[in-house]
Amino acid sequence: MRYGVFSDVHGNLEALKAVLGHFESEGVDAHLCCGDLVGYGPDPEACLGLIRSLKGLSVVGGNHDLAVAGRMDLEWFNPYARTAAIWTRAHLSRQALDFLEGLPLRVETSDWTMVHGSPRKPPEEYLLSPAQFQDCRSYVKAWPLFMGHSHMPLAFRSSAAGTDVVFLGDREESAAMEGGVPAPAAFNPGSVGQPRDHDPRASCGVYDTKTRVFRIARLSYDYRLVQGKIREAGLPEYLALRLEYGQ
Ligand SMILES: [Fe+2]
Fold this sequence. Notes:
Blueprint: E1 2-6, H1 13-26, E2 30-33, H2 44-52, E3 57-59, H3 63-68, H4 79-90, H5 94-101, E4 106-108, E5 113-115, H6 130-136, E6 145-146, E7 153-159, E8 162-167, E9 172-174, E10 177-178, E11 181-182, E12 185-189, E13 202-208, E14 213-219, H7 223-233, H8 237-245
Parallel strand pairs: 1-2, 2-3, 5-6, 6-12
Antiparallel strand pairs: 1-13, 4-5, 7-8, 7-12, 9-14, 10-11, 13-14
Bound molecules: fe (ii) ion (FE2).
Fe (ii) ion is lined by residues 8, 10, 36, 62, 64, 149, 151.
């Protein structure tokens, strides 16, 4: 089974199309979306439509999805995120808002677990350090764990030798077995619509359950077109600029 894993689309339709084109050329069997489908970007409705049509889709809600749906207080957001969440809510259909309202915070199967941020506090906590990963291990039943939220392509691995975190960039990493069972590992595919690792290309991953390899792909897209749409929509200028710098 090969999964197309993606996260943090944030209403960026051009970046999403690049990623879905990659998944199609890879012939993935199913899709895992780790949340933050909307917020920041100018095409929330179109992105939701595309994501909902994907085959074998499993999806969790991110903090932006919850805020737009009225499930999380906007007080926690910085001014850019708050402005964008209010704009997004006003530009979504009732059907789209209902979909966001119904999103689960965690999806667990016998083969993997998926959350937006961390398994301990799914929509809010950023999983960034080895110590934090080790501390969160008891909240996961089936490895690997897939998550997003930090907008950084990362791999976490834990074994008897210790715990480490690897910045993936555009590389691959594998999930190890230990004593015949999957060793604790977590993969973050980075962000489709607003990468923050100083690489403006859209980020996503493909996970193969046979080889247990998670491979990141970085895809160029027309971010200038998205910048134009952000400005036309009257969203904050910073949201347009950061796409160019990948931050
Ligand atoms: Fe996000």
